[in-house]
Amino acid sequence: MRVQLENDTIRVRIDEDELAELLDDVALLGSTAFGRAFTMRYAVDATNAAHCALEGNAHEWRLAVPRTQLVALKARLPSKDGLVFDIPGQDTVATTVLFDIDVKDSIKRRRP
Predict the structure, then answer these.
(1) Residue-by-residue pLDDT tens, the chain, 112 positions
(2) Would you tell me how many other CB atoms lie within 10 Å of the CB of residue 2?
(3) Is 103 helix (H, G, I), strand (E, B) or coil?
């Protein structure tokens, strides 16, 4: 899993094996160390909810992605078009979540 943070956007890119894990109810876990200052831990889960949700704090957060949308994404692989979610903020702009599957991995898997 690769996580990128930029301004008000979180981009999560996974491969097809990680997508299979999500759909099998296995959370994807990751962390990023910021030198000696702190470590950010994050998790991505598939959920039966209709909307994407983000909870936690700056050091540890969890992204819940709707299972129905993950299944639909899997059905159209390989694709450069992933999922896009806008999560409303509290007195701030919305956080945009870009969630996609590594297209190079998907194409490589389909080569004969």
Answers:
(1) 999 999 999 999 999 999 999 999 999 999 999 999 999 999 999 999 999 999 999 899 999 999 999 999 999 999 889 999 999 888 878 999 999 999 877 777 777 6
(2) 12
(3) helix
Q: Could you tell me the pTM of the whole model?
A: 0.89
| 74 conformational bin, left if phi > 0, alpha if psi -120 to 50, beta if neither | alpha
Radius of gyration of the chain (CA): 14
Print burial letters for 29-55: b (CB count within 10 Å at least 16), e (below 16): eeeeeeeeeeebebbbbbbeeeebeee
Helix axes 16-23, 67-75, angle to 10 degrees: 140
Owner of token pair 């981009």: 11
Domain span at residue 90 reads: 2-110
Peptide bond into 66 cis (omega under 30): no
Domains of the chain: total: 1
The enclosing domain of 57 has a CATH number of 3.30.1360
Alpha-carbon gap, residue 106 to 63, rounded angstroms = 23
